[in-house]
Predict the 3D structure of the following.
Amino acid sequence: MKLNSFDKSKELFLRATKVIPSGISGNKNPAFAVPGSFPYFAESGEGCRYKDVDGNEYIDYLAGYGPIVLGYNDPVVEAAADAQRKLGAAFNHPTPRAVELAEKLVDLIPAIDWCAFGKNGSDVTAYAIQTAREHTQRRKILMAKGAYHGSQSWCRHGLGGLIESDYEHVLTFTWNDADSVMDLVKKYDGDVAGIIITPYHHPAFADQEMPAPGFLQTLRKICDDHEIVFILDDVRAGFRLDMKGSHEYFGFKPDLTCYCKAMANGYAVSACCGSQPFKNAASRVFFTGTYYTSAVEQAASLACLDELVKSNAIEHMMKMGTMLMDGLKKTAADNGLEVRLTGPPTLPFMTFASEKNFRRSQLFSGEAAKRGVLLHPHHNWFIMRAHKEADIQRTLEVADACFAIVSKEFGKD
Amino acid sequence: MKRLPGKIFSTALVKAGVVEATTERDLIRAHMHLHAVLPRLADLARLDDEARAIISEMNVAIEFFVPGGPKVVLHFKNSSVRAVRTGKADVCLMFPTCKMLNDMFDGKKVTPIPIKGVHRMGDLKKLTRLTDILTRYLKPSQSEMADKEFRAKHVELSLLVGLAATEAIATIEAKGRRVASHMPSGTMLYDVKGGPKAHVIVKDGKIEVFPGAIKDPTTTIEIRDVDLAVDLVKGEVDTFAANGSGDIKASGGLALADEYNALFDRVGLYLS
């Protein structure tokens, strides 16, 4: 078979480096994937596939890093967005879509009574911690070590552009270790405003970890006992585990919840949602942005959420994800390799059991991309409603060839 | 030599207003000078004929220290140099403050206080000749850089200084400590194609740097050529752009590379 090449991607990237810092910023920079064996720039998408600027087509398991939940260019969502676009994209004011979307989310998610809208996950996680601080009049925020809650300075990784005061009141605990949380709560007694967590642990460059039995419930109790606001960052997993929120899937109740990615099938909208006791504090936090009220994205979100419910999309995605995870495990074993598949079926991730440095993952993912399947080596994957059995089967055929290459290069386990 | 009198002396100088109190920046720079720059004399013995000849004539342990601050003892013996942080020396040079030590490394006229081995002026003169050679490699002229072989040695020494200097960032600087606390343990190989190799061992936040390759590194950083490495050590490369273009190829444990690079990027703020 003819393997994909990435000449135009590289050419465009060189142009980009002259006018854009890093060429491509953040986690979409090729450095985080497999430079030279991975697409750099996208061109178009349909269903679970997209094309890059070289004309290569991929069965996609990254879904734009999560937002494409139904599939690229979904006709129902696009029609809703088009209809709103004809009325106008942005105004001096919100449109009725804002109220309709807030009502829809409140109806959908039993734990919440209100919503505020932003554009990205970072907007609403920052807003949630400010709301927690306003509600409690305290300073400290606790988060799990390695967790990602966005690109704002309070939780940002690395050092560029940060000063110590940006993060001096943000402290980390160890996932699934309630004692490490309690230690911090005791140490900063009376000054912990909020605990922010993802519903399960999904750091990059690592296996995913589900919550240990009782862990999330223990955090809930700690928050209740010490009047700390319990914040769920459901930006990544939201609407891929349970339409009532991932907390329903895991059986706990947060005070504030943040959603984004799967809300609008690729349109930029995010939401911080909460229960009644936190509404007044949320009102006192100045939360705005020029595009926070843009109506096209909110119209898209209304359609997307309806589609997810109507088509029972999560059940289908769970089935496809399970098929992919089971198939990869078996195909790897057929090639003499042991792999770990972690996370829920709708957000799976794979690592090679015999290594911690991702060299096998990088070779596997690079070879898969050359064969038209996009599986990120360092970041969890996303299943879409558009994935069908034939796509999973094709993916497993490609995986078989790639496992064979890995086995040849590194030897069997 | 006991350290206490020196510390009392320097504290007294600060109280009397003769010298300024040590800042975090001064302390970091002093650590870098003693623990990242001076230990490169060991590499100089390998890379430079003139330096090797001088070192072969030396049999002495020379200590640099700042009371309450960093200390290094350079052991010259059997045509080699070994830098350690503890132990006794034949010659002790005290710098009352980190700033005075840093001033000397910046080329300003500073006279350290010789508190032991004053009679071994010959060894100190040889040491000065060695540091002059090291300075030539670390801060070369344009004409020297035209020489391919010289350029490769400049890159190796500069890379080793830069990598070793990350330790001060990771242990002293508040921002650096935050990164180091998240940094996974592992080994990193820096491989300049057609040029030198160096490797870093990170274990529980502690950083050690060595010349040459290491087997089965956690992370490999391949640098296209010596010219790119020259720009890299000068801090003039957009490393993310270089990764995407293939000029730099990072493979293996990129989480380690990501964290470590955050420290490496800050070295230029202290050493120029």
User: Anything to note?
Assistant: Chain A touches chain B at residues 10, 13-14, 17, 21-25, 29-32, 35-36, 40, 145-146, 157-160, 162, 164, 167, 204-206, 356-359, 362, 378 (CB under 8 Å). The CA atoms of residues 143 and 172 of chain A lie 5 Å apart. The longest strand of chain A covers residues 192-197. Chain A has two domains: 7-62+312-410, 76-310.
